[in-house]
Specification:
One of its GO terms (molecular function) is carbohydrate binding. The chain is an alpha/beta fold. The chain has 10 helices and 10 strands.
């Protein structure tokens, strides 16, 4: 197996795609930080007869002129709706977003789903969005600026749990965590679950990259062995909201582990039974 990090560098990403063609790999699973890289991989792999799966592109690699097996995603827009529904049920104030990257499609779709659902529900209004580049220090600085900037809001959504942890520290130091500011976030990794359990975070959504990778491998292996015939499909990996009660009584189908776990087989069998032939 080849593992080729691109480090968010376009030139390195193109070189890695070309290397996969040169090495005549059996299949490619490619996480690209932009739709152009995913589309280029689809084009070059199609020409070489190599099946390709693109995770976390929110379907943007589909219908770009070249065939691929599938885009494998979490339902980022649905996640945004889930946050808006939680706020409507549990808060009365408005909200702000500290996002990962304005150009990253998962961020775009989470923010879009959250704002549109909040507008439809009519209880909470989005007041501001800050870009923190997935950097905890930048997220902390954004939180500091927001709570001292004169905006009247109650909830801070932070796109990722490492950033959310930094935001929690800022609020704790200011004596304002849960009084008045609540923090909700996304990932469902171990450190985030502990913060939900303690009440420092009010909500996260479990979206396991380990399960996503497991499903991607089974898809590629099944395609290579002629057990499936995916073509330009979008497949959604299961997600789950995690609240304090869930963190105190963990269920692996709710708090989905990040590292390989027997529950991966059970969830794959439930959502993608065609992949469970071996």
């Amino acid at each position: 197996m080849l593992v080729l990090p691109s480090d968010y560098d376009v030139d390195k990403e193109v070189a890695n795609i070309d290397l996969c063609v040169t090495e005549k790999v059996d299949g490619l699973c490619m996480f690209s930080f932009n739709e152009n890289g995913a589309a280029l991989a689809a084009e070059k792999m199609a020409a070489a007869g190599i099946p390709v799966i693109v995770p976390d592109s929110v379907g943007q690699a589909l219908n770009k002129g070249s065939d691929l097996m599938a885009c494998v995603d979490f339902d980022w827009y649905k996640m945004g709706e889930m946050y808006a529904e939680w706020m409507a049920e549990n808060t009365t104030g408005d909200f702000v977003i500290i996002t990962g990257n304005f150009e990253h499609y998962p961020c775009i779709y989470v923010n879009k789903g959250m704002e549109e659902k909040a507008n439809a529900l009519g209880k909470n209004k989005l007041l501001d969005i800050r870009d923190a580049d997935y950097n905890p220090d930048k997220a902390a600085a954004a939180a500091e600026d927001l709570i001292n900037g004169g905006l009247d809001f109650e909830t801070i959504f932070v796109m990722q749990e490492e950033m959310a942890s930094a935001v929690v520290r800022v609020l704790k130091n200011a004596g304002k965590l849960n009084n008045p500011y609540k923090v909700i976030t996304q990932n469902g990794q171990e450190m985030g679950i502990e913060l939900v359990k303690s009440g420092d975070l009010q909500m996260t959504i479990s979206s396991s990259p380990g399960l996503e990778g497991y499903i991607c491998f089974r898809m590629l292996y099944s395609q290579i062995n002629g057990k499936i015939n995916y073509l330009n499909e979008q497949k959604m990996v299961p997600i789950s909201a995690v609240l304090q009660a869930d963190a105190q009584n963990p269920d692996p189908k709710v708090i989905i582990p990040w590292h390989r776990n027997e529950i991966f087989k059970e969830l794959t069998s439930e959502y993608f039974p065609e992949l469970m032939w071996y």
